[in-house]
Design brief:
By secondary structure, the chain is mainly α. About 45% of the residues lie in helices and about 10% in strands.
C-alpha cells in the first residue's frame, strides 16, 4: 500500500472561508490518522482572482489552527515547486502528449465564436458545451495555424457515448452519462493550465493518494478520471464532503456576508473551538463526544463517518462549544484573551480589568459579547424601575426602597472595601431585617448595574465599582424610586 499523501490546495483569493478550512482539516486528519504526509500547494493558475497578501493569510491560518504541513512553498520538499504558477513549464508537455494520443486537440476558436455558440445553442444541449469545430481540422490546417502563431487552447476530447463511473469514499459509485461532459480546456492560450488539468498533473507528480473536496465537484470528477486513464496513472481515493450551508438549500458565501475564519476569530471565537466545530460539520464521531482537541481528532477521525447530507452552520451550537472552551481556560489565559474586549466596553482605567474578567469567564460564550456585558461598569445606564420588581425574589418597589435605604449607611461604614466586607455588611442586614437574601441583593444589584442580567452579583459588582461609585449609584436608585412612590 502506498504511503498516504494528502494535499490542501487553496487558491489565493484573500480569505479562508469555512468550507476551505474544513477541507484542509480533513486532509490533515486523513494524513495524520494514517501516518502520512500533509502537503500545502498554492493553486494560482487563475491570476485574475489572485489577491495580494492572500498566500500569507493561508500560512497564518494554518499556523493558527495547528495544521502543520510537511511540504509546501515555505517549508520545501521533494516534490516542489509547490506554487502552480512556478510549475508553468510542467503542464504543456502533458497536454501535448494527450494531443498525440488522441485524448485532446488544439482549439483555435476566438472568444467571439465561442460566445456565438453559447447564444445559438438549442434547448436540451449542455449549456456552454463546445461544438467540437476544431476537432475536425486537418493536420495541415493545425500545422499552419501553429506556424502562423494563431492563439490556441488545448481541449480534452471526451467520449461522446456510454458512461463513466468512479468510486467515492463517501458517496459510493457515481455514474455519469458521457454526453453531459464538455470538452474542457486543459491548457489556456497564455500557456497556463486550467484548474482541473493542473490538479490532475500535480496530484500525480506529488503522489497524492487522497483528494478531499466539496460534493459540488462530484459531477466534474469523471473528467479527472478520464485524464488519469488517458495517461495510464493510478486514480487517487476521492473523498467528497457535503457542502456547508447557513440554512437548508442556502450555501455559505463570503459574498453574502457569511463569516470567514478570520471573521470568526475577530468576533471572539477561540481557534480551538472553531476547529472542533468545523470538524463536526459533515463528520460524526463513533461516540457521543463533542469536544475534541486537535490531537483527539487525529485519533478519532474516520472518513467512513463523513455524512452525505449538507451540513448546517449553526452559530448557536458554535457559541455553546466556544463557551465550553472558555470555561476550560485558566483565569490568566482567559484574562489575556478577554482584556481587549473588556477595554472596548470600558473607558474607566481605574476599574480592575482582571477582577472583571474573573466574574465574566463562567458567563461568557463569545468574547465579542463582552463589551456590551460590561459597559454598565463604565457608566450606569438608564433603566426601567420595574426591574426592581421580581416575583421570584419577592421584591417590590416599596421593599426595594427599604433595602436600599438600609444598605446605603451600612456600606458607608465599610472601611476595607472588598468582597468579604461587602458580603458581611449586606448579609448582616439580611439577618437584622429578617428578610430573604434576594430582597436585599436584587435591589442593590439593580441599583448599581441598571441591568436585568449581569456577569456577577451585587457583591462582586460593588467590589469592582469601588465604594464611592457604589454608594453614588445606590443613592440614584433611592432618589428615583422615592420620586415614583411619592407621586402615587
Amino acid at each position: 500500500m502506498k504511503n498516504v499523501r494528502t494535499r490542501f490546495a487553496p487558491s489565493p483569493t484573500g480569505y479562508m472561508h469555512i468550507g476551505n478550512l474544513r477541507t484542509a482539516l480533513y486532509e490533515y486528519l486523513i494524513a495524520k490518522k494514517n501516518n502520512g504526509k500533509f502537503i500545502l500547494r498554492i493553486e494560482d493558475t487563475d491570476q485574475e482572482r489572485y489577491v495580494e497578501g492572500s498566500v500569507d493569510v493561508i500560512y497564518k491560518t494554518l499556523k493558527q489552527v495547528g495544521l502543520k504541513h510537511d511540504e509546501g512553498p515555505d517549508v520545501g520538499g521533494d516534490y516542489g515547486p509547490y506554487v502552480q504558477s512556478e510549475r508553468k513549464s510542467t503542464y504543456k508537455p502533458y497536454a501535448e502528449k494527450l494531443v498525440e494520443t488522441g485524448h485532446a486537440y488544439y482549439c483555435f476558436c476566438t472568444k467571439e465564436r465561442l460566445a456565438e455558440i453559447r447564444h445559438s445553442q438549442e434547448p436540451g444541449v449542455v449549456v456552454g458545451k463546445y461544438d467540437r469545430h476544431c476537432l475536425y481540422l486537418s493536420k495541415e490546417e493545425i500545422a499552419k495555424n501553429l506556424a502562423d502563431g494563431v492563439p490556441y487552447v488545448i481541449r480534452q476530447k471526451m467520449p461522446d457515448t456510454g458512461t463513466t463511473s468512479f468510486d467515492d469514499a463517501v458517496y459510493g459509485t457515481i455514474t455519469v452519462d458521457n454526453t453531459t461532459l464538455d470538452d474542457q480546456v486543459l491548457l489556456k492560450s497564455d500557456g497556463m493550465p486550467t484548474y482541473n488539468f493542473a490538479n490532475v498533473i500535480d496530484d500525480h507528480l506529488m503522489e497524492i493518494t487522497h483528494v478531499v473536496r466539496g460534493s459540488e465537484y462530484l459531477s466534474s470528477t469523471p473528467k479527472y478520471n478520464l485524464l488519469y486513464q488517458a495517461f495510464g496513472w493510478d486514480i487517487p481515493t476521492y473523498v467528497h464532503v457535503p457542502v456547508v450551508q447557513k440554512a437548508p438549500g442556502v450555501k455559505l458565501s463570503k459574498r453574502s456576508g457569511d463569516a470567514s475564519f478570520e471573521d470568526l476569530v475577530e468576533m471572539g471565537y477561540l481557534v480551538e473551538a472553531i476547529v472542533n466545530y468545523i470538524a463536526l460539520l459533515g463528520w460524526s464521531p463513533a461516540t457521543n463526544q463533542e469536544i475534541f482537541s486537535l490531537k483527539e481528532l487525529e485519533e478519532a477521525f474516520d472518513i467512513h463517518h463523513i455524512n452525505k447530507a449538507p451540513a448546517i452552520f449553526d452559530f448557536e451550537k458554535l457559541s455553546w462549544m466556544n463557551g465550553e472552551y472558555i470555561r476550560a481556560l485558566t483565569s490568566e489565559r482567559f484574562y489575556e484573551l478577554a482584556k481587549p474586549f473588556i477595554e472596548k466596553g470600558i473607558r474607566n482605567s481605574d476599574l480592575d480589568t482582571f477582577k472583571i474578567s474573573k466574574i465574566i469567564q463562567s458567563r461568557t460564550e463569545v468574547l465579542g459579547n463582552i463589551p456590551e456585558s460590561v459597559d454598565f461598569l463604565d457608566a450606569l445606564p438608564d433603566y426601567d424601575l420595574e426591574m426592581y420588581v421580581h416575583k421570584k425574589m419577592k421584591t417590590t418597589l416599596e421593599n426595594s426602597l427599604m433595602s436600599l435605604n438600609e444598605a446605603l449607611p451600612a456600606l458607608r461604614e465599610v472601611t476595607a472595601w472588598n468582597e468579604e466586607t461587602i458580603h458581611n455588611a449586606l448579609f448582616g442586614l439580611v439577618e437584622k431585617l429578617q428578610i430573604k437574601n434576594g430582597q436585599m441583593l436584587w435591589p442593590v444589584r439593580t441599583a448599581i448595574s441598571g441591568k436585568q442580567v449581569t456577569p456577577g452579583g451585587a457583591i462582586e459588582i460593588a467590589d469592582i465599582l469601588g465604594k464611592d461609585e457604589t454608594l453614588s449609584r445606590i443613592e440614584i436608585g433611592i432618589t428615583r424610586i422615592d420620586a415614583v412612590l411619592s407621586e402615587e
